[in-house]
Amino acid sequence: SADTSPIRATLFPGDGIGPEIAESVKQVFKTADVQIEWEEHYVGTEIDPRTQSFLTWESLESVRRNRVGLKGPMATPIGKGHRSLNLTLRKELNLYANVRPCYSLPGYKTRYDNVNLITIRENTEGEYSGLEHQVVRGVVESLKIITRQASLRVAEYAFHYAKAHGRERVSAIHKANIMQKTDGLFLKCCREVAEKYPEIKYEEVVIDNCCMMLVKNPALFDVLVMPNLYGDIISDLCAGLIGGLGLTPSCNIGEGGIALAEAVHGSAPDIAGKNLANPTALLLSSVTMLRHLELHDKADRIQDAILKTIAEGKYRTADLGGSSSTTDFTKAICDHL
Amino acid sequence: SADTSPIRATLFPGDGIGPEIAESVKQVFKTADVQIEWEEHYVGTEIDPRTQSFLTWESLESVRRNRVGLKGPMATPIGKGHRSLNLTLRKELNLYANVRPCYSLPGYKTRYDNVNLITIRENTEGEYSGLEHQVVRGVVESLKIITRQASLRVAEYAFHYAKAHGRERVSAIHKANIMQKTDGLFLKCCREVAEKYPEIKYEEVVIDNCCMMLVKNPALFDVLVMPNLYGDIISDLCAGLIGGLGLTPSCNIGEGGIALAEAVHGSAPDIAGKNLANPTALLLSSVTMLRHLELHDKADRIQDAILKTIAEGKYRTADLGGSSSTTDFTKAICDHL
Ligand SMILES: CC(C)[C@H](C(=O)O)[C@@H](O)C(=O)O
Ligand SMILES: CC(C)[C@H](C(=O)O)[C@@H](O)C(=O)O
């Protein structure tokens, strides 16, 4: 666009390797001359000494105001509130859809070629309701909640995405043969939305069968939309097909056009601060953020540079079998820009 | 054993291709001189004209009396009661553990070599409680139930199995970071049992991560034990690694030493009666039944003959890329006995 005033975006570097890989994104954006001004906030597992908080109201407001943000990994120490951190962000910002593009990286060989899948996960309800209780000693229950509103919203997003990205098919993943009411409602909503998109093929696939088909032949699928837990499972399975969470971008979509892109891998405390982390997932996530801002030229340039660097194979971090540092890998990407 | 009086076993050929593949098992058992007398009952989607029933009390009693049985596929026409058939069998016979050995078949190439996994699935509760209701219009909920009793029972079975089969490790698969109470109780039970088996390694793996690791490197796992739905998903994923449900045996274990082996693939109505079906899954399931009866010699001989026939590749059914009929494939197996 002709407007050159900088866009403001929120940055949560996160825990562990988060700050290093966030630095890598800043570096690449600077080199690519992306006019973004980062509003950096600490959100993470340690109490921030400056704010005495894991997560300040200002951090949330920053995303709400900027409408775009990038989030590094947040650690999962049991009982230390990680759960509430990731889930709190989703809840507070109403991040109703989690979108994970998953494609084979040229030159990085796995058992699968030409994977090209999009998983779109309902991100607010289902098995993540947090409603659980002990009925009597030794008998506990969890509530899975499915609502028409959230199901329609994520289905809309999936079909809209499919159409906008020239995709052919949306598969709704479910277990309605067992959970007829909950998953049944989810499917009903998908069907309603599907009718408004006659140009997009629509099908329904049972989750167990979907997983079997994905490992046999991922090319059978295109865009997949599903309730929260199935999305959690299938998006990681898909990531595994192309090499793991270190290579897959993720973006959370919220009401009012909010997009919070994120690396979904762990915070890798064992290698934190050692300049060994692979910034690819966060970099590719930042690309999805740029696309959300319709900065497609910048997005293309940066994505190309990342993919070229990986394809060349000269600079690769240890998790990809190389011995490059985070900064050398980042520099190699910048050199391709 | 020296006792040559025939063992009685129940046979439910099931729907679609069920009768043909059951015939194949009978043929192979006869050729291998297995002293089994089949008690055949119809259980399936059509009303049996002789009994006017989908599932008679006598069919259930037959399994309860014989303690061993073999079950073919039962169809899933929506609203036609398939759900209740499979689940009813599990419930009525208290089939608390579903065991699926999943190993690469020599000579049948997939993307994965040397897969050798056992999934052990809790088979009676969890997300399969059937408890669902509409809270208000557009808001539905399902109850996931986890009990100490069922969790201990399946964990016991898994560790017992691991020990009896010389396995090294049991991994409990869960999502206790989200469902702290339900999956938390499941893990607590696994830990209690693990303590009684110090010779078996024990670990806990979150389901999303487990799926990613399975597709990246299945050799990371050995025996997996998990709640119902995760077992449904992961056992199919594992089947996909080695070629699909047409090749994987399954056995349901019930209280009092009942074993109901089963083919878990569909009833394939499109090819039913055409002598095209692949009987491998039911044959390998019948082998697990023989092992349950401690007829290891017969089990070994039959398993070898099946694996040799597949490895040679001369006789293969259409689903495996060949053009053999069910009967020719069966004959080839018999020739190897
Ligand atoms: C860490 C965990 C709470 C989270 C989830 O289950 O959603 C993670 O697996 C993810 O996919 O973002
Ligand atoms: C058909 C269906 C009800 C069943 C299940 O979900 O358990 C099947 O997938 C299985 O694994 O046996």
Your description of this structure?
Chains A, B: Its cofactor is Mn(2+); Mg(2+). Chains A, B: This is Isopropylmalate dehydrogenase-like domain-containing protein. Chains A, B: Keywords: Magnesium, Metal-binding, NAD, Oxidoreductase, Transit peptide. Two copies of one chain form a homodimer. With 337 residues, the first copy, chain A, is of the alpha/beta class. Helix content of chain A is 39%, strand content 22%. Chain A is globular. One 3-isopropylmalic acid sits at the interface of chains B and A.
Output the structural class of chain A: alpha/beta
From the alpha carbons, calculate the radius of gyration of chain A and give it in angstroms: 20 Å
Q: Specify the number of helices of chain A.
A: 10
User: Termini of chain A, distance in Å?
Assistant: 20 Å
Low-confidence stretches of chain A: none
| Strand composition percent of chain A | 15-25%
Main beta sheet of chain A, described? Answer: 10 strands, mixed
Order of helices and strands of chain A: EHEHEHEEEEHEHEHEHEEHHH
Residue-averaged pLDDT of chain A, rounded?
94
Q: Give the fraction of residues assigned to helices of chain A.
A: 25-40%
In short:
The structure is a homodimer of 337-residue chains. Chain A contains 10 helices and 12 strands.
